[in-house]
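R.M. (postdoc): so does anyone remember the format we settled on? I'll just put the structure tokens first.
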């Protein structure tokens, strides 16, 4: 039986930082890849000295490469904007680099971070993703979804910032273990439970989202726009 997710491709997952894409979309990325869809990841920011030593940046990139191999990612695109400094970065430039990668991969589906995330890099990446996906262009993404990132989405201010209320659930029962294996590649980001950035917490969230739609495991998304 053909997986309908193959029609989503080419897919672009916009990750403000390495590992956001695995936390929010890892199981779905694996399922998309298995279905034959091209899956691209755009890592928006890179660490810069002195805040982020060169050795740390290199380690995280190596971890991302290993994680993406586990998930079957077609290509990883580093946009090299300054990590934890997007608030001071020219927003027109952020719009440009994200628009360029959307055009480069001819993205039909975009997964972006949720605008209610507590990290400003996530909020600004979401806004620039919407700029890049505006439908007045000759070609544009026809599906846009926002994903949740543990340690960012769950720490927003209730009632004051947009809440994450998923209305799309993708069954990852068959790919959950690959998501967990991919996150395990990020050894530098691992935390002990009950910290959100732990394999145990990722498993718990997948179980919760799955139970919402009577599946063993799922990832939840907020639908921003679908054009058919």
């Amino acid at each position: 039986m053909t997986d309908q997710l193959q029609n989503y491709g080419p897919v672009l997952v916009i990750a403000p930082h390495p590992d956001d894409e695995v936390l929010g979309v890892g199981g779905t990325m694996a399922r998309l890849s298995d279905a034959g869809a091209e899956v691209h990841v755009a890592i928006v920011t890179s660490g810069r000295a002195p805040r982020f030593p060169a050795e740390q940046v290199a380690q995280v990139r190596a971890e991302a490469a290993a994680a993406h191999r586990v998930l079957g990612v077609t290509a990883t695109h580093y946009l090299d904007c300054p990590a934890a400094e997007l608030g001071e970065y020219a927003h027109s430039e952020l719009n440009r680099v994200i628009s360029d990668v959307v055009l480069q991969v001819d993205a039909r589906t975009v997964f972006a971070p949720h605008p209610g995330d507590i990290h400003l890099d996530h909020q600004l990446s979401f806004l620039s993703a919407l700029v890049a996906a505006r439908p007045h262009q000759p070609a544009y993404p026809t599906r846009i979804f926002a994903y949740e990132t543990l340690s960012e989405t769950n720490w927003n201010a209730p009632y004051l910032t947009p809440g994450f209320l998923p209305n799309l659930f993708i069954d990852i029962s068959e790919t959950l273990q690959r998501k967990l294996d991919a996150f395990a590649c990020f050894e530098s980001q691992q935390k002990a439970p009950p910290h959100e950035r732990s394999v145990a917490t990722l498993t718990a969230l997948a179980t919760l989202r799955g139970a919402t739609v009577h599946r063993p495991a799922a990832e939840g998304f907020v639908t921003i726009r679908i054009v058919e």
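R.M.: ...and that's the designed sequence above, right after the tokens. Also worth knowing: DSSP finds six helices and seven strands in the chain. The mean pLDDT is 96.
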